[in-house]
Each structure stands twice: as C-alpha cells, then as structure tokens.
Amino acid sequence: MGEKIGRNEPCPCGSGKKYKKCCGQNESIDFSLPEDMLTGTPLDDYLFLHQGVALYAETIARFEKEGKELRKAESEYKKKFKPGKDEGIPLSLFMSWLHFDFRFGETLETVCERFIKSPYYTKLKEPGPTHLKHLSDSYCTFYEILDIQKDRISFDELGTGQKWQVFRVNEPFEREAIMGDIWYLRFIGSHAGAYIYTPPFIYPQETKVFFTKAAKQQKSIILNECSGKKIAEKDLFRESCKATVPFWMDFFLGNLDEIPPVNLETKIDSPEKLILCNTDRELMSFSKIFFRVKERKGLRHKLSLLKEFDYDEKHKEWIWFKEEKRKAKIFNRTILGNLYLKGDRLVGETNSIERAARLVTKLTQESGDVLSYEKMESVSPDSLPKPTTEEMKKFEEKQKELYMNPEIRKKIKEDIEDYYLKEWIRKKIPVLNNQTPIEAVKTEDGKRKVKRLLDNFDSLQENMPPYKPKINFDRLRKKLGLLPKAN
To answer: DSSP secondary-structure letter at 429?
Structure first.
C-alpha cells in the first residue's frame, strides 16, 4: 500500500524535519494490526490507514500552530464523553470523529483532509488513496435495517433515503441485527459495498419518525456558509452529520432530555434550533381541520360510536384520546386533539399535520354521511409571536395558583410518584440500550447509567420553581437496589 520511509528522508507529516528527528523518533508505534483485529477484508486496510492519520494528528498537535486547538478539543471531549470507558462512548466513535469530522484552524479542514494534502499521501498506492478518501468522506447518521443476508445487511439512510449494502464481518451486533431497527453508526466505503466502522447505537422501529426528522432538520439548518467556508448543496447532509456527532454523543449518554434539541457545532454559523415533537415523534404544527356539518342531528350519535372520543359536557367538546392497551393514573391516556361545533362547522384541533390527517381520514370514513371535509390550516411554532413579559407573568401566576392548591398538589405528586415507581421502572429506555431500568441495574454499567438518569432527574427538580411539587427519587433508587443520593 505504501513505500517504506528512509530515516533521513523528509518526514511525511510535513514538519520539514528528517523522519528520524520527527515521527521516526517514536519507535514504539507499531502499524501492524493485532491478529484479533484482522478480518481478511478491505476493512483491515481502512484500519491501517487510520493509524497513519492518527500519527499525523499527533504531529499536528505537537508541531503546528493549530495543534493547540486540536489538543484542546481532544482533551475537552475526552473529559466529557469518556471514550473507551464503561460509562462513556465507544473509542472508535470518538477517534473517527476527531480525525474525520472535527474541523479546526483557519482552513477548517479535518485531520484526514490535511493528511491527504501531505507528502505521505503521494507515497500511497491504490487502493490506499481511494480508501483514505472513503475515510475522509465518512459520517455517522441513522439507518433502518431493510434486509439481513448471510454476507451483508441492507440499510436505508433515514435523512436521505439512500440505500447501503454493508458487508458483514461477524461482529456480535451483526448477529443480533433485527429488521426495522434503527442504528446510528459510521459506514466506510461505497453505497454498493461498505463496512461498519463504529459499534451501533440501536433503537426500535418506533423511533424512525423522530430520527428521520431530526436527520433532515440537521440538513435544513446548515447554512451555505460555515464560518466563511462554502458548502455545496450535495455536501450539506454529510457536513450536518459530521457537525452533530458531539450532540448525539450527549444524547446517547443521557445528558439530554428524551426529545432533544439539535445544536450544531459552534463552527457552523447558524442559529440554535429546537425540534419540537409530540409524543408520537411528529413535528409540532398547530393544526385546525374544518368539516361542514351536513346533518347536525346525527353528528353526536356518530361521534359517540367512536371509542377514542369522549364528550366533555362542561366545555361542549369532544376529546380525542389515543387508544391505549392499558390504563394508568397518569401520562398513559394521551390527548391527541379535540373537536367542537362552531356555527355549521365542526372544527378539529391537534398539534401535528400527521394527527390532523389521521383525524380527517377517521371522520370522513366513519362519519362521512353527516360530515364533509373542507380545509386544514397549520401553523408552525416558529411562526407564532413570542409571548410578552406580561403574558408570561400572568401564566406563571396561574400556574403558581394551581400548584399551591393542597389537594391538587398532593394529587399531582402522588400520580407522578406512582408513574415512576410502577410505569417508568418497566419502560424500555433508549439511553439504557432499550432495556428497562429493572433490567439495566443487573449489570454494573447499567447501574451507572440508571444512577446518572436519576441524578439528572434530581437536577431538573432543583431548577424547578419552588411552588411545583417535587418527588423523592430515593424511593425509586431503593426499589432498584441503588444507594440514596449523596447530599
């Protein structure tokens, strides 16, 4: 793949020194791969090349003026994400981001892009240059498993719809692959024949809508300017994936809420954006649907036959509930929308276009003889005027008045505690690798993750207004066999 470098030749790192006075001093570096890492496939070549890129990164950090920025990023993110440790992210995810994704210095180039411009690149023989370009162009994002064969797995890239054929190399997670699962990982190679380069973070199929929209949102908020660096339209999605790796690391470690904002790297000159989703992982869009009432007399009877709708006599409206397999005291009976009469129209209100479309289908199919669909109006939260300081103050006062009622306060606290002790403890949590808390605490790594989650809950409570009821998560810790929170 590459020619041997003489000790008196110029160092391929570009420092201007002889090889023996520069990178050649570190004779402890062994570029051969351990036997247990060899796969007998082109993946071995990618791993070998990555070692060269890693050495070049060390050279930049030691000798170049921009090395300080690289060292600082590596130090800060190692401290934050603990790569390679039980409570941290996989080392391969971190190192591939640092070498292939992180842009720094005046040119905003990655380590790998700089390596390609170095003298060492000219010494590579094919397929070295092609494989190095594959490494440089690679990125992490979300994929759905479409098909599983003996020698390969087919994936659908959620943000673009592109299809990938990925060769299997007998990794444990490949053997446990399930059709429809969502994986976050990095592929190396071409769409027709790639290899998995980082262990996947795995989520169930139900999360597809959320992660698809999150991936697309990344692209939509990347501007064509990146601190002065132009980004071609064809590269926007790839660059958005590269820029958001640290954000998703935070998400996977449980440092963010369940429905997170998508913050881009500070290198990307764009405003922070928040993805607002409802409980079905659909983008929030306040929607009104208008139906003309053809026969008002039969309307109430028709709607009463629909088991998802309950009539509220006090407010004279129908409440549309999500059909649940089992009932709970709190949180499980999700309100999807409401319906009310206004003149000769039936008006439906809900918080996403998808729910609005389902409501139209449901009512026209099951009550079509008394209703006819007219129109839909949708408003994005971004287009709504921000509440004034006075409006926010009035809202806060009403909230305070509500929570200060002893009976309401007691009821809310009881229901929340009941939910966490009986419901949440048996729910599959994405940041626990889709295990329930009860299952997760059976291992030391799982215990650490659950402890971190509960500590986060406590921190969130500490930032709540004092009038809101707070619960004692030590009861939950005790039930899970964890120690109480240290004061």
So the answer is: B
